[in-house]
Specification:
With 313 residues, the chain is α/β, with parallel strands linked by helices. Helices cover 43% and strands 14% of the residues. The strands form two sheets. Strands 4, 5, 6, 7, 8 and 9 form a six-stranded mixed β-sheet that branches. Strands 1-2-3 form a three-stranded parallel β-sheet. Strand 6 and strand 7 form a beta hairpin. 35% of the residues are buried.
Length: 313
């Protein structure tokens, strides 16, 4: 459990773990340089439960905290719980029973989002299909709803200094070492979406930079595994996603970065039907030295969306 300034939520998260029907677990809470009362709360709870181990470190980011937790894990299986979320009482029992019975490498489940909505998947137990779906952002690449064999996870490392999507990147890399997965069609995890979270507290410039880190690491991983051709189309889709705000966000609009950061992706832009038409047309205008017409494209696109004839994708 990576912890950074979660004093309002940390007790709820840990109490839900202490209430598990399955009791043979160890919680490693990594305090990543919190500036609020989170460290004191962790130490107080750990003093009363020997199954809880607290590690305090200087702030290094969520990826670094997750890595420290993984390196200190001793169990046969590992799973991540975020400090602002909580879990159902049968969360660990259901996951453990299935992975032991089926002798698979990983099990995963559904989740509640903000208590009211259930984030439900179609039953997916094919490793390659899951990788494709995560890369296409059709399935969340989260760690908290996946229980892994530790000997698989320990062979991979979290990307240093990665502040966002470190979980998706790690999941994909682990899946390339995975042979069998089993899906549990039950919501066992409660994911809390909140304004103060890291993902919701970044501006688009930072998001673009962080996403480019992830894209570079994914490309390296696919090359190392000799699977770059298999996932090339998905990788190009991620590249297009990473650069979209170089056009869409007027606060740091940079047409040259849009065209030159991933020229291979821009060359393939018309192959992706879900990519916004305004960005496809913008790339064509830039290629033909007609950037003066770009404002007209955005005005027309805005008009279509107001009329309900187009949608933001």
């Amino acid at each position: 459990m990576p912890v950074y300034d979660c004093e309002a939520f940390i007790e709820c998260a840990i109490n839900s773990i202490q209430s598990q029907m399955f009791e043979d677990w160890e919680l490693i809470a990594v305090d990543d340089g919190s500036t609020d009362s989170s460290p004191a709360i962790l130490d107080s709870i750990a003093a009363q439960d020997q199954r809880i181990k607290v590690i305090h470190q200087a702030n290094g980011g969520v990826a670094a905290a997750r890595q420290v937790g993984l390196e200190n894990a001793l169990g046969k299986y590992v799973i991540h719980v975020d400090a602002d979320d909580w879990v159902e009482p049968d969360y660990l029992k259901n996951m453990y029973d299935v992975i032991e019975e089926r002798q698979c490498d990983m099990v995963w489940c559904d989740a509640f989002v903000n208590e009211e909505k259930i984030w439900k998947h179609s039953c997916q137990e094919d490793v390659e299909v899951m990788i494709h779906n995560i890369l296409r952002q059709e399935v969340w690449g989260t760690l908290w709803n996946r229980l892994w064999r530790r000997d698989i996870c320990s062979k991979e490392k979290f990307l240093k200094d990665c502040r966002m999507w470190e979980d998706m990147l790690f999941v994909v890399k682990c899946l390339m070492r995975t042979h069998s997965i089993v899906y549990i069609p039950q919501p066992l995890y409660h994911y809390r979406q909140r304004e103060g979270s890291l993902t919701n507290n970044q501006n688009n410039r930072e998001i673009s930079v962080e996403y480019q880190k992830v894209v570079a690491e994914l490309q390296r991983a696919f090359e190392d595994y000799g699977r770059i051709d298999e996932f090339q189309d998905d990788l190009i889709g991620l590249k297009l996603f990473a650069i979209r705000d170089y056009v869409d966000d007027v606060r740091f609009r940079n047409y040259d970065k849009f065209m030159n950061t991933y020229p291979d992706a821009v060359q393939s832009i018309w192959k992706y039907p879900n990519y916004p038409a305004r960005l496809k047309v913008t790339s064509w205008l830039l290629q033909h030295n007609l950037r003066g017409l770009i404002p007209l494209v955005f005005k027309f696109d805005g008009l279509l969306r107001k009329l309900g004839l187009s949608k933001q994708i």
